[in-house]
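Bench log. Compound arrived from synthesis this morning; before running ITC I wanted a structural hypothesis for how zinc ion sits in the protein. Inputs:
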Amino acid sequence: MIILGIETSCDETAISVVEARGGFKRPKFMVLSHVVSSQVKLHAPYGGVYPTLAKREHIKNLPIVLKRALKQAKLNLPKIDAIAVTRGPGLEPALWTGITFAKDLAKKYKKPLLGINHMEGHIASVLLNGGSTKHEIRNTKGFRFPALALLVSGGHTELVVIRDFMKYKIIGETRDDAAGEAFDKVARLLGLPYPGGPHLSKLARKGVRDRYPLPRPMINSKNYDFSFSGLKTAVLYFLRDNPGVNKADIASSFEQAVIDVLVSKTIRAVKEYGVKSVILAGGVANNTELRKQLGVAVKEFSPLSTFYFPLSTYTSDNASMIAVAGYFHALKNKFIKSPSKLKAEGNLKLK
Ligand code: KG4
Ligand code: ZN
């Protein structure tokens, strides 16, 4: 099955063509093309994503990105079996551009449509983890259930129990800032460029971990929820009261505080739910230290479970992950019955 994936939930215009086979048990994917056009530079002066600007750019970029994706995949639209597009969560004006574009293509070429939850896409991204080059067939073991996903991005921090494909239960989420958002805000306090997450983690490598005592918000709470805004405020006050402090040490100490909370809650859920697969996904999964420390903890506390994380190409927003999730929707025959049923849902939740 050849699936065209379309993603426009935030500031990346992305289209991929993915060939999928093997069913639920042995899914295999070949990424025939993977095109991501980032608007990051345009939004940087605003220190965040500016929705109307994002919308305008997506509309301008979509036809260009499609052309590149088809050229890279060496095929044309009639060869596509289905079109999978992100329906939410995200910025609604941005989501609509991808959805409208997908609907037009579906109508013109008489192709079935699939509406995908962006977070489900991030979960699916970890299945693109075999092979060695970008476009070769990727063999994966598929997931063993129950699985647990720690989803960490600029907009979300969620712990999700997955009983089976497409059966999700959010057991915990952030009450204020998302993990990526906290990274970005603290990076800004440290004078790093937007989006600051990657810059902060790079700086943190030169610092002394735990040099400064920062709080681990909610680490001992009985639930699986998170809160990161207090941690950001703690950094703000610390910098105010200690001018001239070593920024790399602050970056390191902050990063470690976030990781401690994420790892501790994830491991507690791993034990409680007896999970067999632990999935780390979303933009913050790019953080090497988080990946390393969570991997070590899973091995120590749940040695029989498998730890999945995405290759860097598939970590931040992209359309290959949307196509992969689309494959599972297609296997379950979850095609959109009527185009009017497919709408942008800014607050769409996994369920
Ligand atoms: O999933 P994503 O690309 O977009 C959203 O759906 O939000 O995630 C982007 C977020 C940003 O907040 C970015 O700063 C953060 O992921 N991020 C990182 C790293 N790389 C990206 N945060 C910490 N360490 C990193 N290495
Ligand atoms: Zn994302």
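What the model suggests: The first strand starts at residue 2 and ends at 7. Confidence is low (pLDDT under 50) at residues 131-135.
ITC booked for Thursday regardless.
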